[in-house]
Automatic annotation (TrEMBL):
It comes from Paramuricea clavata. This is Tektin. Pfam families: Tektin (PF03148). Its main location: cytoplasm. GO terms for cellular component: axoneme; microtubule cytoskeleton; nucleus. Signal peptide: none annotated. PANTHER family: TEKTIN, TEKTIN-1. Keywords: Cell projection, Cilium, Coiled coil, Cytoplasm, Cytoskeleton, Flagellum.
Length: 483
């Protein structure tokens, strides 16, 4: 029988011991590695915890600084906003003054126009372009020019108010945004590891392109404040010019009013004196006419009487011509009768010529009487127009409403000129400030000319205020306020 030997699958003792040693060594190594890893992990965790706590504290401090910065800028913006509101109220008062002044010129303008219309009804020689008419024309032109200046200035005030309103809206939005930012930053400043509402927001670390840089953020509020101060300065200057316009025009209108009244008084006195003188001459003419009438009657009676003498003389001559024969002699009575007739004829001719002269003189006096009466009637009409119509109507013409519209004093907004907080001064004064002469835009047509000097960052009246860092605020939005 054949015996078959199988190969053994068992390990020998050496292998068994070697395997055990290997496991011992591996276990020891892994344990040591674990200890080392635990120690390193503990150190790492403590280090990271320390760094995280330190970083969180640092971030909290930065957020606190940011809160102070935002609060400081917010306070400055709100202070400027308060100043803008105060200036807007002052400008509204200025607008009301202009509107009252403009309304106060409506009735006075009709008075000189009516006076000019009434004076066209003067008759005859009194329809003259005298000093009164010239002064009335000047008064109409002055009032119309004043109305035009007031309307132009009122438009400028309305436009300036709209610019202030636009600036106020920007300050309102800036203040509201900073209020929201402060609320968020205060919430973030109070967060800790045990706060509620914590969570992962992995996309929050990404920088959105709409985020602004710190200089842009500072420049935005700086530009808003600078623009507001610039507009306030323009508004203050405009209010001063408005006050000067009202005072100057009030003085000019009163002077013109007095000049017209003075000219009208003088004209009334001249017309009254002329009428009085004409009346006196009329009385003399009428007296002379009465005397001349008596003279004519006397001449007629004298002619009548002389004609009787003539009739007697001629009758004697005619009767003596009937003497008969030799008795028809050219005796002395004959010659005396002939001489008497001739003398009476000469006398009658003289009396008749004198009567004709007297009649012509009487007719001339009568014509002069009619002329004087007509001229007196003309003067009476002129007096009724100037004294009874125009002057009485001008007595009801008062510049008191205009004077009342200029009475309110300019509102003082100097309380808005407060010192800028030191924290912001370094940001607001980084650019050198220049001084330049500024001429107001109200000097149109020679009206409201004037200039002021103010400290500004290269400000002028024809362009918007300067901005920092080459940045400029968004376009000015002007919303209708007065239609």
């Amino acid at each position: 029988m054949t015996t078959t030997y199988m190969v053994s699958s068992k390990f020998n003792p050496a292998e068994w011991h070697s395997s055990n040693e290997t496991h011992y060594m591996n276990a020891f190594r892994e344990v040591e590695n674990g200890k080392s890893l635990r120690n390193a992990s503990d150190k790492l965790a403590k280090s990271i915890a320390y760094d995280a706590s330190k970083m969180q504290k640092h971030v909290r401090e930065k957020i606190g600084h940011r809160i102070k910065d935002v609060a400081s800028w917010k306070a400055e913006v709100e202070k400027e906003r308060s100043c803008v509101i105060s200036e807007m109220e002052a400008l509204l008062q200025c607008k009301a003054m202009l509107e009252k002044a403009l309304a106060a010129t409506q009735h006075p303008l009709t008075v000189p126009k009516k006076c000019l219309a009434y004076r066209t009804n003067r008759a005859g020689i009194d329809l003259v372009k005298d000093t009164v008419e010239k002064q009335l024309f000047k008064e109409v032109q002055l009032i119309e020019a004043t109305q035009a200046a007031l309307k132009r200035t009122l438009d400028q005030v309305i436009d300036q108010y709209r610019r202030l309103e636009s600036v106020k809206k920007r300050l309102d939005k800036d203040s509201l945004d900073k209020h929201s930012a402060l609320r968020i930053d205060n919430y973030c400043h109070g967060l800790n590891n045990y706060s509620s509402g914590l969570g992962y927001h992995k996309f929050a670390v990404e920088m959105d392109p709409k985020f602004t840089t710190l200089p842009e953020w500072e420049n935005f509020s700086y530009d808003n404040i600078t623009r507001a101060r610039w507009e306030r300065k323009m508004s203050e200057n405009l209010r001063k010019k408005v006050h000067e316009l009202l005072v100057r025009t009030m003085n000019e209108l009163k002077e013109m009013f007095d000049a017209v009244n003075l000219a009208m008084n003088r004209r009334v006195m001249e017309t009254s004196e002329a009428k009085k003188s004409l009346t006196n001459h009329l009385k003399r003419v009428m007296d002379e006419m009465a005397k001349m009438k008596g003279n004519i009657d006397m001449l007629k009676k004298s002619i009548y009487d002389k004609e009787k003498y003539m009739q007697v003389a001629q009758t004697r001559l005619e009767k003596r011509g009937y003497r008969p024969n030799m008795e028809l002699c050219r005796d002395i009575p004959k010659f005396r009768l002939v001489d008497e007739v001739r003398e009476l004829e000469a006398a009658l001719d003289s009396l008749k010529r004198r009567l004709q002269d007297a009649i012509r003189a009487y007719q001339a006096l009568e014509q002069q009487k009619l002329s004087l009466e007509q001229d007196i009637a003309v003067k009476t009409t002129s007096l009724e127009i100037d004294r009874d119509l125009c002057y009485r109507m001008r007595q009801g013409m008062s510049w008191q409403p205009f004077l009342l519209s200029t009475a309110p004093k300019l509102k003082d907004t100097s309380c808005c000129r407060q010192a800028t907080p030191p924290r912001l001064m370094s940001r607001l004064s980084h650019r050198p400030v220049t001084s330049r002469s500024i001429t107001t835009p109200m000097s149109r047509g020679g009206k409201l000319e004037g200039s002021i000097r103010l400290h500004s960052a290269a400000l002028d009246f024809t362009s918007p205020p300067p901005t920092r860092g080459g940045l400029r605020s968004s376009h000015r939005v002007i919303t209708p306020m007065f239609g």
